[in-house]
């Protein structure tokens, strides 16, 4: 077998980016056939959608693992290390595994068209999962679904998280067109679990499902959730490092009203109200596995309410509303598209605009504060004419200033994203990831100053932006890093390397 180093392997793989995105499955099907069809040697769950795919995949993988199964998890992109894309029983594969699988796939890539980066990565995942005898693999699509390289699977359950306008040059310009592409993962006689809400998109998905005799289970129709509370105590399986975080950052408790069950006081450690829906989609998928008596779920390895609770609570998903540092408080969220930026903006307003901007001079609790003029409103970061605005100071709330570190890619709707991300901030640092598609921070700042009066600056290097923000932050300041998963990854690496010495958190 060809000898190549890990560094050389990654260099060759990342060079494949110049071949661009090719949405068709013939090339990867040929490669997998030459490898002995590894994708047929394990059961799978296939997940598509605009946002939430990775969280849902992580929930399901954690639940299956806690049920005694050997589980592979394939997601993208990675935050810090390429190996993160390929996890087996919660651990990313080794550098040696990456090299061996790459060489094997490369030798099988002898078709008329050279495989793309994502096709090679996907084939590597299936090769590794088969070699390591995983019983179940949870697979996230790269883009779309119908012609995505992952769509060679015959899954037990498919999940489509949600839909919004994205990647229009590849998936179409309307929700209906995008739904048709994402709906391509629906298989004959295979249940679909979905959180899609738009009627036009649901009509398309239901039509595809009907043609393929696939039952559809829809969030808020066939199953639902009710918020109980934000966790004020530690969930299960919390590391020593995470115990240092304030209780209000520990997660959420909710009731799941499922297809045939009601489970009270379910716990997720992942932040944000959208994670309740993501949890529900994962739970519904697991409920279907329980009902369908899928091969591989034996007396030895069986999904139970206990294992499902444990797996849900144990789930982590780095870089997605992740509270990574306590002093100063630092949260990282990729927020890499418009819907994700809107979710983050809403979360920040609820958490921080009330806690800092609504606090009176004597910080008295449980008071109402009315903003009556433009000057006052600009102190909370917005130029707006809808005055007065009533802010309610929550009892026992803690005042935080909010510094945003933002970097966005050049193919994203940055103006709309910034409109959601900026209003809660008292300081904004614009930066850029080390990737060619990063948008010039000056463009971001030039737009920002037209909509907010917040202090802004540019520090192009992500590491230096993080270092400056942390070193200049006060005790009453929260730092939020957002706008791109690439920025999130670089920032997370910097914090883990230079500001967190606790190896338990790094693991």
Question: How does this structure look, described?
Answer:
By secondary structure, the protein is of the alpha/beta class. It has 2 domains: 6-314, 3-Layer(aba) Sandwich (UDP-N-acetylmuramoyl-L-alanine:D-glutamate ligase), CATH 3.40.1190; 322-506, Protein-Tyrosine Phosphatase, Chain A, CATH 3.90.190. The chain has helices spanning 6-15, 26-34, 53-66, 95-108, 117-131, 168-171, 175-182, 199-211, 274-292, 305-314, 338-357, 374-378, 414-421, 441-448, 462-472, 485-498, 503-506, and strands at residues 43-48, 71-74, 86-88, 91-92, 136-140, 157-160, 192-194, 216-218, 224-230, 252-257, 262-268, 322-325, 329-332, 368-371, 389-392, 401-406, 427-432, 455-461, 477-482. An 8-stranded mixed beta sheet has the order 4-3-2-5-1-6-7-8, sandwiched between helices. Strands 12-13-19-16-17-18 form a 6-stranded mixed beta sheet, with helices on both faces. The chain has a 3-stranded antiparallel beta sheet with strand order 9-10-11. Helix 2 (26-34) runs parallel beside helix 5, helix 3 packs across helix 9 and helix 11 packs parallel to helix 13 (414-421). The longest helix is centred in the last third of the chain and has 20 residues, at 338-357. The protein is globular, with a radius of gyration of 23 Å. The two termini are 32 Å apart. The relative contact order is 0.10. Residues 232-248, 354-398 and 502-507 have low confidence and may be disordered.
Helical content (DSSP H or I, runs of 4+): 25-40%
Question: Biggest sheet, strands in spatial order?
Answer: 4-3-2-5-1-6-7-8
Helix/strand/pairing category: alpha/beta
What is the CA-atom radius of gyration, in angstroms? 23 Å
Average of the residue pLDDT scores: 85
What assembly state would you assign to the polypeptide chains in this entry? single chain
CATH evolutionary superfamily of the largest domain: Mur-like, catalytic domain
Distance between the termini: 32 Å
Number of helices: 17
Query: Looking at CATH, which topology of the largest domain would you report?
Result: UDP-N-acetylmuramoyl-L-alanine:D-glutamate ligase
Q: What is the CATH-assigned architecture of the largest domain? A: 3-Layer(aba) Sandwich
| Unreliable spans | 232-248, 354-398, 502-507
Give the number of DSSP strands. 19
Q: What's the shape?
A: globular
């Amino acid at each position: 077998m060809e000898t190549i180093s890990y560094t050389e392997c990654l260099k060759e793989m990342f060079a494949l980016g110049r071949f661009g995105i090719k949405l068709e499955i013939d090339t990867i099907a040929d490669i997998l056939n030459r490898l002995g069809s590894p994708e047929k040697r394990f059961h799978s769950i296939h997940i598509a959608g605009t946002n939430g795919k990775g969280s849902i995949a992580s929930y399901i993988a954690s639940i299956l693992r806690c049920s005694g199964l050997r589980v592979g998890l394939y997601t993208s992109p990675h935050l810090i290390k390429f190996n993160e894309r390929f996890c087996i029983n919660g651990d990313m594969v080794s550098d040696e595994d990456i090299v061996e699988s790459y060489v094997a796939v490369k030798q099988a890539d002898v078709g008329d068209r050279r495989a793309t980066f994502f096709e090679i990565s996907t084939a590597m995942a299936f090769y590794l999962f088969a070699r390591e005898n995983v019983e179940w693999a949870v697979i996230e699509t790269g883009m779309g679904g119908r012609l995505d390289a992952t769509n060679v699977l015959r899954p037990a359950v498919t999940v489509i998280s949600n839909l919004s306008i994205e990647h229009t040059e590849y998936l179409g310009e309307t929700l209906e067109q995008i739904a048709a592409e994402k709906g391509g993962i629906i298989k004959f006689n295979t249940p679909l679990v979905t959180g899609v809400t738009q009627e036009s998109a649901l009509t398309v998905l239901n039509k595809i499902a009907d043609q393929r005799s696939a039952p559809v289970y829809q969030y808020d129709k066939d199953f639902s959730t009710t918020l109980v509370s934000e966790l004020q105590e530690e969930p299960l399986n919390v590391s020593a490092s995470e115990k240092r975080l304030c209780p209000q950052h520990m997660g959420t408790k909710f009731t799941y009203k499922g297809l045939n069950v009601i489970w009270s006081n379910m716990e997720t450690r992942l932040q944000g109200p959208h994670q309740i829906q993501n949890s529900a989609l994962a739970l519904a998928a697991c409920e279907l596995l329980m009902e369908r008596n899928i091969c591989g779920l034996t007396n030895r390895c069986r999904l139970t309410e206990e294992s499902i609770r444990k797996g849900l609570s144990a789930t982590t998903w780095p870089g997605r509303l992740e509270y990574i540092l306590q002093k100063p408080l630092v949260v990282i969220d990729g927020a890499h598209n418009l819907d994700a930026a809107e979710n983050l903006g809403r979360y920040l307003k609820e958490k921080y605009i009330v806690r800092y901007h609504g606090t009176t001079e004597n910080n008295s609790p449980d008071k109402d504060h009315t903003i009556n003029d433009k000057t006052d409103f600009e102190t909370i970061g917005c130029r707006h004419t809808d005055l007065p605005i009533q802010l309610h100071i929550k009892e026992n709330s803690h005042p935080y200033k909010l510094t945003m570190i933002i970097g966005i890619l050049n193919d994203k709707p940055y103006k709309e994203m910034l409109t959601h991300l900026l209003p809660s901030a008292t300081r904004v640092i614009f930066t850029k990831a080390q990737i060619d598609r990063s948008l010039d921070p000056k463009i971001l700042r030039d737009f920002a100053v037209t909509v907010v009066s917040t202090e802004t600056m540019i520090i192009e290097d992500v590491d230096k932006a993080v270092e400056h923000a942390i070193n200049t932050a006060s005790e009453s300041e929260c730092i939020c890093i957002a706008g791109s998963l690439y920025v999130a990854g670089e920032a997370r690496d910097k914090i883990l390397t230079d500001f967190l010495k606790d190896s338990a958190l790094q693991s």
